[in-house]
Structures are given as structure tokens and as C-alpha cells.
Specification:
The longest helix has 13 residues. Helix 6 packs across helix 8. Helix 3 links the parallel strand 3 and strand 4. The relative contact order is 0.17. By secondary structure, the chain is of the alpha/beta class. Strands 1-8-7-6-5-4-3-2 form an eight-stranded parallel beta sheet. Helices cover 33% and strands 18% of the residues. The two termini are 27 Å apart. Bound molecules: D-xylitol-5-phosphate and zinc ion. The site of D-xylitol-5-phosphate has 21 residues, from strand 3, strand 8 and helix 7.
């Protein structure tokens, strides 16, 4: 997936709240609505209590949409599972720093699969956790909720960490995207954008918008720019 150095906010809807009986249609609807990528919240029931998408589910949707797929691997053994999510058609795999005792090696192993690698930081994990791997990352994901569920409240206290990671990326002139995930909606995206985020994961804000996906995506993009 080519790095998109876009000044415009990139919207990556999480399909966690989707109607799983119509998952393909929902993803096609997100593409039609102008989303920039699909965010798959992969959970193994161990790293987080919830259990969600296996690689075969993602592979079944792959031929239906042309949007890039990013998998947010909230799993205990990301290095074991990475090849299967790459094979399923994900262009970017984001692993949790907290699940990777050998993070540098795991990111290298993902890149050897020919796809991009990202690192996610739980709320308690400092920005310094990515200080020595930015050269291997295409994306850093700062969690703005504790992972495991959709529909939680945004942690504004994470904005300081977003700004710290932004400073690290800019000082090192790294080509790395900064993504936030959790509680992102029209009321919170502006502050996250102001803090330095450029890619925004939104689940509830997209799927619960009464005016539909297109309105939700456009509204989020606008609110990010209005910061
Ligand atoms: C939580 C997931 C988030 C979540 C976002 O573990 O990583 O992507 O689904 O959902 P909302 O946007 O509803 O907070
Ligand atoms: Zn996520």
C-alpha cells in the first residue's frame, strides 16, 4: 500500500460494529461512501477478551472491495498470525507493542511478507516504545481507548502522547502515518487532529450515523480539518 502523504484526514472505518451477516455489503458501502481504508479489529480472546475476525473472514471480503485493508492485531502472538492475515489480503498489519517482546524482529518479519507494518500503543504504553522502530513502521496507532470493544469514550489524555509521537516522526523525518483509534467522532476528531493524528479509525461514529456512511465519512473529514 503506497504511503499516502495526504494533508487531508484519512478515515479508516472499523467494521467491528458492522452487521456480520452482511459484512461484504457493509464493506462495499464503506467504499462507496469514500472511506480511505477498512480497519479490521482482530481480537483473539486472550490479548483482549473479545473474539472477532479470522483471516478467512477477511479473505472472503477481499475480492468485493478495492480499498486497502489494515488489520489491527489485538492478539497475543502476532508474529504467528501475521502470514495468514497477509495472505488474506491485508496491506498493513498493526501489532501491539505490549504483545511483542521482540518488536523490532516482528516488524521486520511482517515487512518480509511484502506488506507494511504498524505499531499500536495501549493507553499506558509510552511513546518511547516506538523510538527505535520508526524506520520499520508505516504507521503508529495511538489507542484512545483501552482495546477490546467499540463504543467507548475517547481518552483526551492521549492527545499528549499523539503530540509526542508526532514530534518523534517529524524530528526523524520518518515517513510514518499517525493513527488514532477509539471514541473518534465529530466531537473528538478535531482535537486528535490538532494533536498530530492524520488517520482516524471510527466504528460507532460511522455505523450509528442516521444519515448513512457517506454523511458520516464526510462529516468526520470536515471535523478533522476544522480542528
Ligand atoms: C477497540 C478497537 C477500536 C474500536 C473503535 O479495541 O480497536 O477500533 O472498534 O470503535 P469506536 O469508534 O466505536 O470507538
Ligand atoms: Zn482498532
Amino acid at each position: 500500500m503506497a504511503l499516502v502523504a495526504s494533508p487531508e484526514a484519512l478515515i479508516a472505518p472499523s467494521v467491528l460494529p458492522a452487521d456480520f451477516a452482511r459484512l461484504g455489503e457493509e464493506c462495499m458501502g464503506l467504499e462507496k461512501a469514500g472511506a480511505d481504508r477498512i480497519h479490521w479489529d482482530v481480537m483473539d480472546g486472550r490479548f483482549v477478551p473479545n473474539l472477532t475476525f479470522g483471516p478467512d473472514v477477511i479473505a472472503s471480503v477481499r475480492p468485493l472491495v478495492s480499498l486497502p485493508f489494515e488489520a489491527h492485531l489485538m492478539v497475543e502472538e502476532p508474529h504467528e498470525l501475521a502470514p495468514r492475515y497477509a495472505e488474506a489480503g491485508c496491506e498493513l498489519l498493526t501489532v501491539h507493542a505490549e504483545a511483542c517482546p521482540h518488536l523490532h524482529r516482528t516488524l521486520g518479519a511482517i515487512r518480509e511478507l511484502g506488506i507494511d507494518a504498524g505499531v499500536a500503543l495501549n493507553p499506558a504504553t509510552p511513546a518511547s516504545a516506538v523510538a527505535h522502530v520508526l524506520d520499520l513502521c508505516r504507521l503508529v496507532l495511538v489507542m484512545t481507548v483501552n482495546p477490546g470493544w467499540g463504543g467507548q469514550s475517547y481518552l483526551a489524555s492521549m492527545e499528549a502522547k499523539v503530540a509526542e509521537v508526532r514530534a518523534m516522526i517529524d524530528e526523524g523525518q520518518h515517513q510514518v502515518e499517525l493513527e488514532v483509534d477509539g471514541g473518534i467522532g465529530r466531537a473528538t476528531i478535531g482535537a486528535a487532529s490538532k494533536a498530530g493524528a492524520g488517520v482516524f479509525v471510527a466504528g460507532s461514529a460511522v455505523f450509528s450515523n442516521e444519515q448513512g456512511f457517506s454523511h458520516a465519512v464526510a462529516e468526520l473529514r470536515e471535523a478533522a480539518a476544522a480542528r
